């Protein structure tokens, strides 16, 4: 590790303060979680304390492990989508998109423009939901309950819009190989734009409440700082990497869907501390807002999925009325779409960073192997390193700003 | 000089057309399929030649064991020696030296698409109610070679929906694509030309002659070779969906031929047999009696033990202890006889023979089994027991003399035999069942409940061949392996496991964990009677641990439903739960 890292460690042998009372202290191990109201999800952290100072932390994950990768090998390619919903369940459409792009890379298919825009819009809405959850929870953990209430209000409005297009708040299962499952309902665009206005208002309220708040600043600035070089070394991606000053975003570095057709900025932080991670997310909320509005301006009419019965179910009248339709439907449902044999790695910018899907197909209707690069994993692995020397009270807010989601980290 | 000016005599002869090129591989024909060189015997069809290099040419009417009809037009390919550059039927055209075959050109693809469009034009929208769905060539080829939506804007042709052709076969004339495979099979293989095509053009239908049903004992095969859902089995119709079923490689236990089969099962029920290819035994056919003989695997099974005639069903362990006690006592009194059934596998009778000779001190066994039935010169043998040769080998290996069943009845009547240990409750004479009721003690290991099993004083539940790994030795002396489809039902165990349990209770070192171990230990006693047979010869090609995918018939090449085998040692409830599909 670099030298800055050593600077973070508690001063070991400073000159004794004459006023300091020499209380004998001993190391204490405490368990935080797995079932603790302050922990995000079901995670156990074993904290070694010297007084209030964290000297070591071991994170015990796995309480949400459900064999995602192995489960996917048992079902058809299309049936994997509901499983991907449960990776980062706060922003499920982005997982859908990541998986669909990987399969489409193997199949070498390009989807209609309208489907690309719809995927982008729903992805960005879900990115906002994810960031709002984080910001709200951070406020809550630092004593600002109102922030949570405002963030939840904005998030619920966004979730309502997502429900209107895909039928679920959380587990969207919206994307399909070759397109998306449904078109935007009548009047949806206006409702989304109104929702964005309201969300922007609430975001402004949150900003006014905490961004310059003295307590908030004292509790977040300089806490769990990760220098840029360390963040790169540790494999950070997403907002946590950008908060450390590295302007890497897959949407810019390797544009997919329509990210090369819309204008947006990549916010970066300076210190990589909890405040920067908060601030980057606040700015990304505004940038997502920008992207969605541009997408609606550019949204073309047309198909929402490719017209190829190898990948997409034929329309229902054809299924019920013609033998060709019913056979295509039968083969896709019973055997799954046939993905050409080969392997592919495809990566997208999810709410927490680079979400990668590594797929191997043997040419059959089910995945031969799926590997997921969970964006939250490097940050989760680095948590012990980040909080060493910090106070116990800072553990929970730090845990929030790295935004570990058990669903994706534990797969 | 004059001679010099004379033109050569050969010049007057007109030049011959160039003859066929000399074969590059003498005795063989060398041609090119899709850019890959193929060397095959003269007379090989293009379809078979293409298979050699892994090129799939689609077909419906072609069948390698039937004559060529070339009527479905699905296999048309481009050949360099085609007159006028026409597309040629790959099933009918033999390969020729130096010919280039192309199966993937736009012309061929367009022809395949057009053929499928015509075949599907009048095909009813039946997949959801069709038994063939999931193993249907129309579905497969549509997704591979057509994929175009319907262009039909008028009503479909209507024909007979359920025409009963015979006791085992129902015809749906609307689904039929008139490939005439069934007609040719009945004429050429079954040697009973009971099917034909009647009427002309779009009215053509497959039919029997008036008043003459399709009642050949091999009629069930037409269901297997029908590439679409036109011919369905009255026995399997509407009973299960094939993509939920799994297949085990098995052997028919209906007669001494031992036709190789796929045993299709779901959870703990066998649904059908399909013939499995074995050139030396059954080619790829089987008889109707064998085809429905799977029912014995499901019906009236003994799955719990019983002590005392008319006693309550109970746990096997207690019954086995009682059986061991009875056997020891009666063997010491020299009033015990052993009755072996040739329905039991080779492993079963090896274990039982060892127990009889070494544990019970017997010098002879009586031979049970089913009585003789009909036979013909094609597949069916009169001896309806699958393992008579195996039983004879096992008895000889352990020095047991085989005595006919009639002797046992006589000995029981005379009082010389007061107790019987039966491995299998099948007997050739149904009237003799009453004799077993007179026995003082009757330990019976039975698959199915029947008059003999009812006479048992100790009844032990045995597992038939669907529930075990084992071997049958057919009438040719050919040992044929079959594999476990599902774990033993209820409290039942294979005969060999029951014999081993009894043997252990009698103090013998029977420690086999599975049939493979047993065979490895006891087969040297057979002294090479099985030739070069290897117990592990049933080739397994697991793509996933614990799974044996079978390409034929099952969707996707994997076992449908994707169930794993359940370990032998788990509790019964857990085993059932694990093997359940939904």
Instruction: Outline the biggest β-sheet of chain A.
Output: 3 strands, antiparallel
User: Any idea what the shape of chain B is?
Assistant: elongated
Number of helices of chain B: 16
> Distance between the terminal alpha carbons of chain A, to the nearest Å?
29 Å
Strand order, largest beta sheet of chain B: 15-14-21-20-19-16-17-18
Mean pLDDT rating of chain B: 87
Low-confidence stretches of chain B: 540-571, 577-582
Oligomer classification: heterodimer
| Approximate helicity band of chain B | 10-25%
Given helix and strand content, the structural type of chain A is mainly alpha
Gross morphology of chain A: globular
Calculate the terminal CA-CA distance of chain B, rounded to whole Å: 101 Å
Biggest interface, chains and residue tallies? A-B, 24 and 25 residues
Strand content of chain A: 5-15%
Q: What portion of residues of chain A is helical?
A: 40-55%
Percent of residues of chain B in beta strands?
Answer: 15-25%
Number of strands of chain A: 8
Largest sheet of chain B: 8 strands, mixed
Write the element-wise H/E pattern of chain A from the N-terminal end onward.
HEEEHHHHHEEHHHHHHHHEEEHHH
**Whole-number average pLDDT of chain A?**
90
Would you count the extended β strands of chain B for me? Answer: 23
What does this structure look like?
The complex is a heterodimer of chains A (411) and B (582). Chain A has 17 helices and eight strands. The model of chain A is unreliable at 1-9 (pLDDT under 50). Chain A is globular, with a radius of gyration of 23 Å. Chain A is mainly alpha-helical. In chain A, the strands form three sheets. Chain A has a three-stranded antiparallel beta sheet. Chain B has 582 residues and is of the alpha/beta class. Chain B has helices spanning 2-5, 46-52, 106-121, 137-146, 181-188, 221-225, 288-291, 316-333, 346-359, 388-397, 405-414, 433-436, 451-454, 495-505, 515-522, 572-579; strands spanning 29-33, 36-40, 76-79, 87-89, 100-102, 163-164, 169-171, 195-198, 205-208, 231-233, 246-251, 260-266, 269-275, 305-307, 313-314, 336-340, 364-367, 401-403, 419-423, 441-446, 458-461, 470-473, 479-482. In chain B, the strands form six sheets. Chain B has an eight-stranded mixed beta sheet, sandwiched between helices. In chain B, strands 2-1-5-3-4 form a five-stranded mixed beta sheet, with helices on both faces. In chain B, strands 6-7-10 form a three-stranded antiparallel beta sheet. In chain B, a hairpin with a 4-residue loop joins strand 6 (163-164) and strand 7 (169-171).
């Amino acid at each position: 590790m670099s030298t800055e890292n050593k600077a973070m460690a508690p001063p070991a042998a400073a000159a004794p303060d004459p006023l300091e009372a020499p209380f004998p202290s001993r190391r204490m191990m405490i368990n935080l979680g797995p079932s603790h109201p302050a922990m995000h999800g079901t995670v156990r952290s074993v904290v070694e304390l010297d007084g209030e100072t964290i000297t070591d932390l071991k994170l015990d994950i796995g309480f949400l492990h459900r064999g995602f990768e192995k489960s996917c090998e048992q079902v058809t390619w299309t049936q994997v989508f509901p499983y991907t919903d449960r990776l980062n369940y706060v922003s499920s459409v982005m997982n859908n998109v990541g998986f669909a792009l990987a399969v489409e890379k193997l199949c070498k298919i390009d989807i209609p423009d309208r489907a690309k825009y719809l995927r982008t819009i729903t992805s960005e809405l879900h990115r906002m939901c994810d960031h709002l959850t984080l910001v709200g929870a951070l406020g809550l953990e630092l004593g600002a309950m109102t922030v949570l209430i405002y963030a939840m209000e904005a998030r619920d409005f966004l979730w309502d819009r997502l429900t209107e297009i895909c039928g679920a708040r959380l587990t969207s299962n919206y994307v399909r190989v070759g397109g998306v499952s449904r078109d935007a309902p009548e009047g949806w665009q206006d409702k989304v734009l109104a929702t964005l206005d309201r969300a922007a208002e609430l975001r402004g309220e949150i900003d006014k409440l905490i961004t310059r708040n003295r307590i908030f600043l004292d509790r977040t600035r300089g806490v769990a700082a990760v220098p840029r070089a360390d963040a790169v070394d540790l494999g950070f991606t997403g907002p946590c990497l950008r908060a450390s000053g590295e302007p890497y975003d897959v949407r810019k570095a390797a544009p997919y869907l329509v990210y090369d057709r819309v204008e947006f900025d990549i916010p970066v932080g300076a210190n990589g501390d909890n405040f920067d991670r908060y601030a980057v997310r606040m700015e990304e909320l505004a940038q997502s807002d920008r992207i969605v509005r541009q997408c609606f301006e550019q949204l073309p009419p047309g198909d929402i999925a490719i017209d190829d019965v190898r990948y997409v179910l034929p329309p229902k009248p054809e299924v019920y009325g013609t033998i060709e339709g019913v056979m295509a439907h039968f083969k896709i449902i019973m055997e799954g779409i046939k993905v050409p044999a080969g392997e592919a790695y495809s990566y997208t910018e999810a709410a927490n960073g680079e979400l990668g899907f590594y797929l191997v197909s043997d040419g059959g209707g089910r995945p031969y192997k799926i590997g997921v690069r969970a964006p939250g994993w490097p940050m989760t692995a680095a948590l012990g390193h980040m909080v060493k020397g910090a106070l116990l009270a800072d553990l929970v807010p730090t845990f929030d700003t790295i935004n570990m989601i058990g669903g994706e980290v534990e797969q | 000089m004059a001679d010099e000016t004379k033109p050569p005599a050969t010049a007057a002869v007109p030049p011959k057309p160039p003859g066929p090129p000399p074969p590059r591989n003498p005795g063989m024909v060398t041609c090119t399929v899709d850019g890959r060189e193929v060397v095959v015997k003269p007379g090989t069809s293009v379809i078979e030649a293409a298979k050699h290099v892994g090129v799939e040419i689609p077909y419906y009417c072609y069948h390698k064991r039937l004559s060529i009809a070339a009527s479905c037009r699905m296999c048309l390919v481009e050949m360099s020696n085609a007159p006028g550059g026409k597309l040629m039927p790959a099933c009918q055209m033999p390969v020729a030296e130096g010919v280039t075959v192309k199966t993937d050109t736009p012309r061929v693809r367009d022809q395949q698409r057009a053929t499928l469009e015509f075949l599907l034009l009048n095909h009813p929208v039946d997949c959801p109610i069709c038994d063939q769905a999931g193993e249907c060539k129309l579905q497969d080829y549509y997704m591979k070679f057509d994929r175009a939506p319907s262009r039909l804007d008028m009503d479909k042709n209507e024909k007979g929906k359920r025409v009963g052709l015979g006791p085992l076969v129902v015809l749906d004339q609307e689904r039929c694509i008139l490939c005439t495979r069934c007609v040719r099979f009945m004429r050429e293989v079954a040697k009973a030309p009971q099917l034909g095509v009647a009427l002309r053009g779009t009215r053509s239908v497959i039919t029997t002659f008036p008043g003459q049903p399709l009642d050949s004992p091999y009629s069930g095969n037409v269901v297997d070779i029908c590439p679409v859902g036109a011919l369905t089995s009255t026995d399997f119709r509407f009973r299960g969906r094939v993509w939920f079923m799994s297949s085990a490689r098995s052997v028919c236990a209906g007669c001494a031929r031992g036709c190789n089969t796929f045993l299709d099962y779901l959870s703990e029920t066998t649904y059908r047999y399909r013939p499995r290819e074995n050139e030396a035994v059954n080619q790829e056919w089987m008889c109707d009696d064998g085809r429905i003989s799977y029912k014995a695997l499901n019906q009236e099974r003994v799955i719990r033990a019983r002590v005392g005639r008319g006693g309550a069903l109970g746990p096997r362990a207690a019954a086995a202890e009682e059986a061991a006690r009875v056997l020891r006592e009666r063997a010491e009194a020299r009033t015990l006889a052993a009755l072996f059934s040739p329905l039991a596998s080779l492993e079963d009778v090896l274990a039982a023979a060892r127990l009889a000779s070494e544990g019970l001190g017997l010098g002879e066994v009586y031979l049970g089994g089913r009585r003789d039935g009909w036979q013909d010169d094609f597949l069916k043998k009169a001896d309806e027991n699958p393992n008579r040769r195996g039983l004879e080998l096992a008895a000889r290996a352990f020095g047991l003399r085989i005595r006919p069943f009639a002797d046992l009845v006589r000995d029981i009547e005379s009082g010389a035999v007061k107790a019987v240990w039966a491995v299998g409750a099948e007997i050739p004479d149904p009237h003799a069942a009453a004799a077993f009721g007179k026995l003082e003690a009757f330990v019976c290991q039975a698959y199915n409940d029947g008059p003999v099993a009812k006479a048992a004083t100790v009844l032990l539940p045995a597992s038939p061949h669907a529930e075990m790994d084992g071997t049958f030795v057919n009438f040719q002396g050919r040992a044929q392996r079959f594999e476990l489809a599902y774990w033993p039902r209820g409290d039942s165990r294979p005969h060999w496991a029951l014999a081993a349990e009894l043997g252990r209770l009698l103090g013998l070192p029977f420690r086999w964990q599975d049939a493979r171990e047993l065979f490895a230990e006891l087969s040297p006693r057979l002294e090479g009677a099985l030739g070069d047979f290897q117990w592990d010869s049933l080739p397994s090609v697991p793509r996933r641990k614990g799974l044996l995918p079978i390409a034929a018939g099952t969707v996707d090449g994997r076992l449908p439903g994707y169930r794993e085998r359940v370990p032998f040692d788990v509790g019964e409830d857990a085993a059932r739960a694990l093997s359940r599909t939904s």
